[in-house]
Design goal:
Blueprint: H1 2-17, E1 30-31, E2 39-43, H2 50-54, E3 63-67, E4 73-74, E5 87-89, E6 97-98, E7 111-113, E8 135-137, E9 159-161, H3 170-177, E10 185-187, E11 208-210, E12 231-233, E13 255-257, H4 265-271, E14 278-280, H5 289-302, E15 305-306, E16 308-310, E17 329-330, E18 333-335, E19 358-360, E20 368-369, E21 386-388, E22 396-397, E23 410-412, E24 420-421, E25 434-436, E26 458-460, E27 468-469, E28 482-484, E29 492-493, E30 506-508, E31 531-533, E32 559-561, E33 586-588, E34 610-612, E35 636-638, E36 660-662, H6 673-677, E37 684-686, H7 699-707, E38 712-713, H8 741-780, H9 783-794, E39 797-802, H10 808-819, E40 828-830, H11 831-834, H12 841-850, E41 852-859, H13 861-865, H14 867-882, E42 888-892, H15 898-901, H16 905-913, E43 916-918, H17 927-943
Parallel strand pairs: 2-3, 3-5, 4-6, 5-7, 7-8, 8-9, 9-10, 10-11, 11-12, 12-13, 13-14, 14-16, 15-17, 16-18, 18-19, 19-21, 20-22, 21-23, 22-24, 23-25, 25-26, 26-28, 27-29, 28-30, 30-31, 31-32, 32-33, 33-34, 34-35, 35-36, 36-37, 37-38, 39-40, 39-41, 41-42, 42-43
Antiparallel strand pairs: 1-2
Helix pairs in contact: 4-5, 12-14
Bound molecules: 2-acetamido-2-deoxy-beta-D-glucopyranose (2 copies).
One 2-acetamido-2-deoxy-beta-D-glucopyranose (NAG) is lined by residues 49, 51-52, 55.
């Protein structure tokens, strides 16, 4: 308890001090969990204020991505607090204005990406601190020119990409680059350059320059200007004439791209000193044999060997057997992609190209691959290893289609329309390692289709129409490591359909129509299988009773995907379903309409590191205490969108290694902090999209999320309060929640009791005062009050007589004759006689009291019971006590015991302070004499000052009331003077 109090206390102190946030959460950016506080992403934000977006990032940042935001301005010193930054991406924003000192202090920056913005002007000293910059991209902006000296400090710049701008002045560009000694690659594609004329030379380090899609109508450069360039891309400069190359040294070029220019290649070769290792003459109109032969001849006069020859986009329909014989020997690749080839003719045209390594006929019009068995050229294509026919329209592959190329290792037949693959089509490919047959229309595989491919390691059959895997299909593929059968229509395997796959490690079966998991099939590769993808099949369980685990012996399995079973989901997980998966590291169970998760569902997965249950279940899911109890190695847990309403501390009990927890999009209104505190290794917590209430129920959570130095609560500062999204969870007012509960209860109880005790006292003590004050106040402003004051000045009456109507007889017969007649001429105010008709009785009383010099109260038992009389006495005594004007005279008509008076506190107080007269009733022994004396005293009291002196002689010895037993002394004190004092 003491500890708890201490905790409360320190919490209160912390909260009281400042809005101190020690937490590990950031306003706009998300820390990459594995990066040790160095990699941040700030993406898709509405905020336009750069400073606001990154102000809270720690100094340790080395890599920062601020992308797809509305930011348009980078103010000075924006990154000054991030001096270790190496990688800065600012692409795909709306940047227009970058202040001169925007990148100040980024001395370590190596890579800066400003692409896809609206930058049209750069300040000359913008990059002055970026000594270490090696990569800069300004792609897709609206730059018209570069200011002089902009790269004067970036001496380490290696790659500069300024494609897709509005640059026109090539000379200006080269001037700003001329002193760079490390620049290797310069991309100026998609600009408006018209020539390469330049006053200064290119940096000697520059080897690759991309000038595609400009408006070059000439090169206009010195002989040696491009003398050191190795890669030159001049594609899509449709106005560039062949003669532009006259006298330009291209001696070092090994990759020249002249795709879709108006350059006449033959003429070009005649005037140019190009001696290319690789040339790209794509899109130069070399469409027929005559032009190609001419090209080859010319090339051969220059070089004996050529590495790569690109002849794409030339509209080539056919190649005769001899065409390429005139070419120099190709030692690398021949690229004939994007032409119009209809047949390959068993690659006859490459017959003499004995050294060729790869052939590319992608994007042609091939429809069939013919049999090549008759061409027994076992000597040809000795070195051909790679053949690619992707993106054709191949419908059928005949038997022995590759029989003459027995050395190929990679064959790419994917993205065609192959519906018929002859069962002997792949005959002879004994060295094949990678076979791509994906994205075709295959329906059947025969048991001898892969008969010869004994070295095959990767077989991709994804996205075909295979329905059944027949016995023995893969029986020779003992080296196969990866088998991709995803996206087919497989409903079942024949009993020995997977036999022979002794090395299989990765098996993709996702997107098929499997209804169950047939464990007997997997027995061949039990010890080797590491990945099994069964996502999006039709597996479903109808009861949860224990079954023999289908994964029983997959002791090496690391990844298991069972997510998204169509159309109804797994529905249930049978008991002990995962038994035997000791090595499993990742398990995917999302989107499975699971009705429940048993507390022992994952008990066997002791090695699991990653578990995603995102949207796995139906409706509101209860996470049973202990459901993760054996997952001691789990580091990432995704329980997003599961309809979790609440969970107890025990749910995450043993997850001592958990570092990432996605709780987002659930429906709990509060989270038990104890449950989170158990997760000692937690670094990343996502609680977005949870309807958290901003009440004391969550005050501890709020405090935990704000002050935890280890856990990043993703975008905490944007998490809204449930009741109103305008309020934020992190700063709802929770101070009140931290008062010690005991103290709180004590205080509130005390206040309640105090009020209960006080209210009767206040009622009695202040009731009249308040009532009086109210009336006084009310009349103060009124005309009535003015009149009343005037009346008071004049003191219209000598005395206001306050009496009860029961005592009217005494007043009429005794009081009035003795005071108004009988030689005395006092003017009395009597309510029945002098009160103004139609006026509020209270106003009348107030007026009467204030316009009379004295108020005589005729006290009887009846008087005491009359409220209005009480008001009169209260008013008069108020004047006595508070205005210190002694106006009250008490006349007791009958003896009244102290007990009877005791309920009239104020009256009693008046009596203690004041004199009073006792009317000597008829029971006195000498009433006449005593009554004369009474009137004398009263008259004197009305005329003289306030106080009446005690006179011993006035004792009424005879005046002993009948009920004398009950009559007691009124309390007396020395200060009080008496007119009459009763004796015992
Ligand atoms: C993370 O960085 C800090 C300093 O920034 C360093 O002390 C710590 O060892 C690093 N941790 C890891 C796991 O790299
Ligand atoms: C941007 O945010 C910073 C800090 O949050 C603030 O000081 C500055 O005034 C803001 N600038 C604009 C233009 O709103």
């Amino acid at each position: 308890m003491a500890g708890l109090t201490h905790q409360f206390l320190s919490v209160t102190v912390v909260l009281g001090a400042v809005q101190l946030i020690n937490g590990y959460s950031f306003n706009n950016c998300i820390l990459d969990v594995n990066s040790n506080r160095t990699h941040f992403n700030c993406i898709n934000l509405k905020d336009k204020n750069m400073t606001a977006i990154i102000h809270d990032l720690p100094r340790s940042v080395t890599s920062l991505t601020i992308s797809k935001n509305q930011v348009w301005h980078i103010p000075n010193n924006s990154f000054a607090h991030l001096p270790w930054m190496q990688n800065l991406r600012l692409d795909h924003n709306r940047l227009r204005i970058i202040d001169q000192l925007a990148f100040q202090n980024l001395h370590q920056l190596q890579s800066l990406n400003l692409s896809f913005n609206n930058i049209s002007v750069l300040h000359p000293s913008l990059f002055v601190d970026l000594h270490n910059l090696t990569f800069l991209s300004l792609t897709n902006n609206t730059l018209k020119q570069l200011p002089g000296g902009i790269f004067s400090a970036t001496l380490n710049l290696n790659t500069l990409n300024m494609s897709q701008n509005l640059l026109t002045n090539f000379s200006g560009i080269t001037e700003s680059l001329s002193h760079l000694r490390n620049l290797k690659k310069l991309d100026l594609c998609f600009n408006s350059l018209t020539s390469l004329s330049s006053n200064v030379s290119l940096p000697t380090s520059l080897t690759a320059i991309y000038l595609c899609r400009n408006n070059l109508s000439t090169l206009g450069c010195e002989h040696s200007f491009l003398g050191l360039i190795e890669v030159l891309d001049l594609s899509y400069n449709s106005r560039l004439p062949t003669m532009a190359f006259e006298g330009v040294d291209l001696g070092r070029i090994n990759y020249l791209r002249l795709r879709s220019t108006s350059v006449k290649v033959v003429a070009f070769l005649n005037i140019s000193n190009i001696n290319a290792g690789s040339v790209d003459f794509s899109g130069t109109g070399l469409k027929n044999d005559r032009l190609l032969i001419e090209l080859c001849r010319l090339l051969k006069t220059k070089v004996k060997w050529i590495k790569n020859l690109h002849l794409g986009i030339n509209g080539i329909k056919n190649l005769t057997t001899d065409t390429l014989n005139y070419c120099p020997n190709i030692t690398g690749y021949l690229d004939l992609s994007h032409n119009e080839l209809k047949f390959t003719n068993c690659l006859h045209f490459l017959k003499r190209q004995t050294y060729i390594k790869g052939f590319n006929a992608e994007h042609n019009h091939l429809t069939t691959l013919q049999s090549c068995k008759t061409q027994t050229q076992n000597t040809a294509f000795k070195y051909l290893e790679e053949l690619t026919y992707r993106y054709n329209r191949i419908l059928s592959v005949s038997s022995h289609a590759f029989y003459h190329m027995q050395n190929i290792k990679t064959l790419q037949l994917n993205i065609n329309t192959i519906a018929f693959l002859h069962h002997e089509a792949l005959k002879g490919l004994t060295k094949l390692e990678t076979l791509r047959l994906d994205n075709n229309l295959l329906t059947d595989l025969f048991n001898d289709t892969f008969e010869d491919n004994v070295k095959l390691q990767t077989l991709n059959l994804r996205n075909n129409r295979i329905a059944v895997i027949f016995n023995g299909t893969f029986h020779r593929l003992g080296k196969l490591i990866t088998l991709d059968l995803g996206g087919n229509k497989i409903t079942h395997f024949q009993p020995s359909g997977l036999d022979g796959l002794k090395s299989l490690s990765k098996f993709y079966l996702d997107g098929n129509n499997l209804k169950q998991i047939d464990s007997s099939l997997y027995r061949v590769f039990q010890g080797t299988l590491t990945v099994l993808d069964l996502q999006s099949n039709m597996i479903r369980f109808f009861n949860g009773t224990e079954i023999m685990s289908p994964f029983q012996n997959l002791s090496a399995l690391r990844d298991l995907k069972l997510d998204g079973q169509r159309p109804h989901g797994l529905t249930l997980l049978p008991r002990a379903f995962f038994r035997g998966l000791h090595s499993l590291k990742s398990l995917y169970l999302t989107q499975n309409n699971l009705i429940a998760l048993a507390a022992d569902a994952f008990d066997d997965l002791t090695g699991l590191r990653f578990l995603t249950l995102d949207s796995c279940c139906v409706g509101v899911t209860k996470l049973q205490p202990g459901v993760f109890k054996n997952l001691r190695n789990l580091t990432i847990l995704i329980v997003e969108n599961m309809g979790i309403q609440n969970f107890s501390k025990e749910v995450f009990g043993n997850l001592t290694r958990l570092s990432v927890l996605h709780l987002n999009r659930n429906i709990m209104q509060s989270i038990n902090v104890d449950a989170l505190q158990n997760l000692t290794k937690l670094q990343y917590l996502d609680i977005r999209g949870i309807p958290l209430t901003c009440t004391c129920q969550n005050s501890l959570l709020q405090n935990w999320t704000r002050n935890n130095p280890k856990v990043q609560v993703v975008l905490l500062y944007n998490v809204p309060c449930q009741h109103d999204a305008k309020f934020k969870f992190y700063n709802f007012d929770s101070k009140v929640c931290y008062i010690d509960l005991g103290k709180y209860l004590f205080l509130s109880t005390a206040v309640v009791i105090f009020l209960f005790t006080l209210s009767p006292i206040l009622y009695v003590k202040l009731y009249w005062k308040m009532k009086y004050s109210y009336y006084v106040f009310r009349s103060w402003f009124g005309e009535k009050w003015r009149r009343l004051r005037e009346e008071e000045e004049n003191c219209e009456y000598d005395a206001f007589i306050s009496y009860n109507s029961f005592d009217e007889q005494w007043v009429m017969e005794q009081l009035i004759p003795n005071l108004e007649g009988n030689g005395s001429s006092f003017k009395l105010c009597l309510h029945h006689r002098d009160f103004e008709l139609g006026r509020n009785i209270v106003d009348n009383i107030v007026s009467a009291v204030y316009s009379s010099r004295k108020t005589i109260c005729v006290v009887s038992r009846n008087f005491l019971q009359s409220e209005w009389c009480s008001l009169e006495i209260q008013l008069a005594s108020y004047r006595l006590f508070d205005e210190h004007r002694d106006v009250l005279l008490l006349v007791f008509l009958e003896p009244i015991s102290e007990r009877q008076l005791s309920s009239y506190h104020r009256m009693r107080k008046v009596m203690l302070k004041k004199t009073y007269l006792q009317w000597p009733g008829s029971d006195c022994t000498n009433p006449m004499q005593a009554q004369d004396l009474f009137w004398n005293h009263l008259r004197r009291a009305m005329t003289t000052g306030s106080r009446l002196k005690t006179e011993e002689s006035l004792k009424c010895d005879v005046c002993v009331p009948a009920e004398s037993e009950e009559t007691k002394h009124f309390e007396t004190s020395d200060e009080n003077d008496y007119l009459l004092q009763k004796e015992n």
